[in-house]
Amino acid sequence: MSEVLTFNDVSVVRGRKDLLKDVSWEVKEGQRWIVLGPNGAGKSTLMNIAATRLHPTRGTAGILGETMGKVDVFELRPLIGLSSSLVANAIPANETALNVVLTAAYGMTGRWREKYEKLDERRAFSMLHQWGMSTFMNQPFGKLSEGERKRVLIARALMTDPELLILDEPAAGLDLAGREELVAQLTELAANEEAPALVLVTHHLEEIPPGFTHILMLNAGEVVAAGEIASTLTEENLKATYGMDLSVREVDGRYSAVARRVN
Ligand SMILES: Nc1ncnc2c1ncn2[C@@H]1O[C@H](COP(=O)(O)OP(=O)(O)OP(=O)(O)O)[C@@H](O)[C@H]1O
Ligand SMILES: [Mg+2]
């Protein structure tokens, strides 16, 4: 299995604060990762490094066989799909849904543009269609609902057929049915052998799609635990992550957690 991410003692320091501290993490081809941790734990910071948007202060970040700092990030970016609030905030409100997806292709070699424009347009439409958004293709991004926006962002992240797909809280703001639909679609994606390596940041165990294989648990910029979900998502590790006694349930591959009742 080839390496998708090889992070060795990655730290990000801002002022006197360590946003990430000595994070070592390996993601291999075919793996599907969940990243869990309280607000401010450093999840999005870590995702921004994986997506080449941020350089570590210390340590080495290997991404798809290249090392950050030693490679032109613009060569790597088309190989990495990212859906996050950072991406959402960078999109002009008047951009149509189709254009939001289509412009992901502009990161690729400019001189191909004219020849490939129609092809790109068809792929962008098909991506929107796959994520149930084709009827919204002409609607401005700023006028889409939260859930619709999330779907457009995932379609955009997949536009370049990446080798790594990073979804930072894709279910935030979705209604219950919308969440369940997204979980079903991500379950399908996880089962697809052709799909890229997946990294999904979430706050809720209910959002872990069955078929996801690994979990990284962070607290205050440090790794609490990392490994296969079945052996790593334990009540002990959840307590170390959140500082709270939680009781975990798993039914048919779906997880949930609630505070442990004190008798
Ligand atoms: N440029 C910066 N300078 C100083 N602190 C920063 C900077 N960027 C982020 N932080 C801080 O780093 C910490 C980690 O932020 P990050 O966005 O990675 O957390 P997160 O785990 O994604 O949280 P959430 O679950 O709320 O999205 C936060 O405490 C945040 O305030
Ligand atoms: Mg975040």
From TrEMBL:
Record lineage: Bacteria, Bacillati, Actinomycetota, Actinomycetes, Micrococcales
SMART domains: AAA
Keyword set, alphabetical order: ATP-binding, Nucleotide-binding
Record's keyword annotation contains Nucleotide-binding: yes
Domain ABC transporter: 5-245
Molecular functions per Gene Ontology: ATP binding
Domain of life: Bacteria
InterPro entries: AAA+_ATPase, ABC_transporter-like_ATP-bd, P-loop_NTPase
Claim: Lipid biosynthesis is one of the keywords in the record: no
Gene3D superfamilies associated with the record: P-loop containing nucleotide triphosphate hydrolases
A Pfam family annotated for this UniProt entry: ABC_tran
Name under which the protein is recorded: ABC transporter ATP-binding protein
Organism expressing this protein natively: Glutamicibacter bergerei
